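Example 452, ligand arginine.
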Amino acid sequence: MKFPALLLFGAGIILIGFASASDYKNYDGFKILEVKYAEPRVRRYVQEIEQHLGFMPDFLGENWKLQQAHYFIEKDSVARVSRQLTANNITHRMRDLNQNIFKVRKRRDLENSQVTIQDVNYRYLNYNEQMQFINTVAQQFPNTVKLQKLGNSYEGRSITAVRIGDDGTNKPIVWIDAGIHAREWISYNVALYLIYTIASEPAYRDLLSSVQLVVVPNTNPDGYEYSRTHDRMWRKTRSRFTNSRCGGADANRNYPFYWGTKGVSHSQCSEIYCGTRAQSEPEVLALTNAIQREETRIKGYIALHSYGQEILYPWGHTMRQYPSDVQDLIQVGQAMAAAVKAINNTEYSVVNSGDGLYPAAGASDDWAKSRGIKFSYTIELSPIDDETGFTLPEDRINQVNREAFQAIQVLMIEVKSRFGIPKVTSSASASANSLILLKRLRTTMSRGLGRG
Ligand code: ARG
Ligand code: ZN
């Protein structure tokens, strides 16, 4: 009698430690569609894939080195999609999902452990752990780091900005936000690593004296928690709509610039549902309001996403349209890519976001650019391949953190040199003062002389 009870108890312990695959939405039979688009004919087909298939498949990412596009195909559509592609003479592969992506470590007990930079480098954290980490950093560096609440998510979680080097002056700002797409987990770690590194290392004090950094490490906390506990592939927000079986909108289609035009869906079950109207999502409203309050000072903006190893520049709402200063954006984008490559030879490609495989309107990068933020980008972080996709193995987090940090640092340096208020060193200001004194002296002297 006692024996089975003990066994049950034992199993219970294991379940507390790890989320088993069975906690998650079941994706048995789903496939990753891989299409090699090197041929121009196939590339055009891929760009028009929605018309060809009669629906827009869930785009996961692309491997630009192998020129492959990756889509997530529902179980019931696999056979039909495959047939359609074959009929159109499109070579493709239907790959199985790597089951490792469903083995997620469950949250640990917050009361018993402090989240440290080690955790940020070696594992994915839940929302509470992320918040605990930024609180600790703010307490550790009270003069450098300040937290600012931007608003609440649909389910009432705080959207928090971390302001680093905010000394009340009018320094230019670089704004970074992460994880508007819930399943793109690596973006949160990159943002937290950035916060900690810039705030803690004395080497960056000089940079921070002329540029301020604002980082929003989790722009979609509801979606993220849902992707950790219920559905690994969840991308959208968690808003509910009356009379609909599907909830959530793609927050990166919800920004008020060419809202609802291209590369979006108006049907609520789509992964790229753009919402009932622009800024319908409270997360987007909070972010746009916060940015607009200080938009004249924000000179750099990066939205962190995954995956694909790409640095994307506007415009992305349509094809073959570029801002007038596009050469500057390309140049700085390439400098960012070069800085990443120098670390470990990881290659990021600098491309226009609309000219790739699909334009998408209502995204944050376009909106930021439209508000006059000069250097506005979306970065698709590692990996480049679809083997693990959004679940980059935890032992690779640290490297991606360090690489992305280099890219962001390049942008900060560029903003400093273009927009930074020249720092007046004590000796320089002393000589400036003495020059003014000398001038005054001369004026009085000449006046005096004249009068005399
Ligand atoms: N993967 C991102 C998305 O689908 C890319 C956004 C790029 N920006 C753009 N304006 N299209 O949301
Ligand atoms: Zn994304």
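Summary: The pocket of arginine (ligand 1) is lined by residues 252, 305, 312, 316-317, 353-354, 359-360, 363, 365-366, 378 (CB under 6 Å).
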